[in-house]
Structures are given as structure tokens and as C-alpha cells.
Amino acid sequence: MRIVPRWALLSSGCAPVLLAGGWAIAAVLEGPAYDPVNQTISVLAAYGAAGFWVMTAGLLALGLCHLLTAWGLRPAALAGRMALAGGGAVTLAVALFPAPSSGGSLRHGFIAGAGFALLAVWPVLAADRRRGAPWGLRPAPSFAATALIVVTAAWFVLELHRHGAAGVAERVVTSIQSLWPFVVVASCVRHTEEHNPAM
Asked: How far apart, in whole angstroms, are the C-alpha atoms of residue 16 and residue 58?
């Protein structure tokens, strides 16, 4: 089995921390005018927002983390690695093309939607159907991760259209998307150590 470099633990582990840290700090800078329950993360990264620079930096760092993790996740199927890398590249694009300070943006919505889609399908595309694969790359957990991301993304879209708790739903789905690469990398590293104790 191809070995996952230990630095992939750092890149994948930093992703959820940078995302949550970015939105938490940006929300504090935005003050009481920002409602994290109903308003999306894009509001924090919009031009003119008080925490624009923090949220933009967080998204850029998140995108780089996904790109590095995809590079280091050698045991995963190539299609999954490409989807994860694509999700990272799209996250960079989301940061570079933020939503406007008021109203919607078709370009931003399309880019964000593409990122959601790539980060939803990468677990199932990365699955290793061979016997003895690391837990995070086995078909059942991979399918479960994709299903969970799709369900929470659908919840986000529903909340967005009904003007409900879109902020909560978006944070749930993006947290799962940013955490799953770490779960997969950690399972690969553990699998390697268990089967190659001398390493």
C-alpha cells in the first residue's frame, strides 16, 4: 500500500480549524449585526464586511489544505483525489470571487455550488474496494460520508430558500466536508502503522 506522508495529517487537520476559526473571528469583527443562525458564511467574506480579510484568508487556507491533502492521499483512488483537489481549487475561487455586500451573485453561487458538489462526491470516488483497505477508504464509510454531505447540503438549500437557519445548515455541511479528509488521512496513517510497525 502506498504510504500517506505525515504532513497530510497537518494539512487535513488544519482545514476544519481554519474554517471554523475564520468564521468565528469574522463574526466577532462583524458584531451584532451578523446573525450566524440565519446568515451564511459568504456574508462574512463579502466585500465591505468587517471581517472580510479574515474570512477570505480562512477560505484561501482551507483551499490550500484540500489541495495538499489530495496530493498526499496516495492510497485513495485517483478520481477521489482529483475531486478533493478540485474542491480545494474551487474554494480558492470562492475566496477570490466573494459575494457582493448586498443581493445575490450568480457567479458566486455557481462557484460555491461546484465546490459543494466536488467535496460531496470525493469520498465515494476515493473509495478503495480492495480487501484490507484503510477504514476511511472502504466503500461503506465513503458512501456514508457522501450521503451525509448530500443530505446536509440539501438541508442548507432548503433553509436558504425558506429564509430559515441557513447559517447553521451551512456550518454543519462545511464542517463535515472539511473534517472528512482528516478522518481518511488518519485512518490511512494508522493502517500503515498497524501493517508496517517498523515504519
From this structure: 10
For residue 129, give every residue at least 6 positions away whose Cβ sits within 8 Å of its Cβ, in sequence order, or none.
139
Q: Which of 145, 156, 97, 104 is nearest to 122 (CA)?
A: 145
Interval 121-138: pLDDT, tens:
999 999 999 888 999 999
Q: What is the maximal distance between C-alpha atoms in the chain?
A: 58
State the Cα–Cα distance between residues 133 and 138, nearest whole angstrom. Answer: 6
Reported pTM: 0.92
Per-residue DSSP letter, 99: P
- Is 140 in a helix, a strand, or coil? helix
Nearest 10 degrees: Cα torsion 31, 59, 37, 44: 40
Q: For residues 62 and 92, what is the distance between their CA atoms, to the nearest angstrom?
A: 8
Distances (CA, A) of 195 to 9, 170, 191: 18, 38, 6
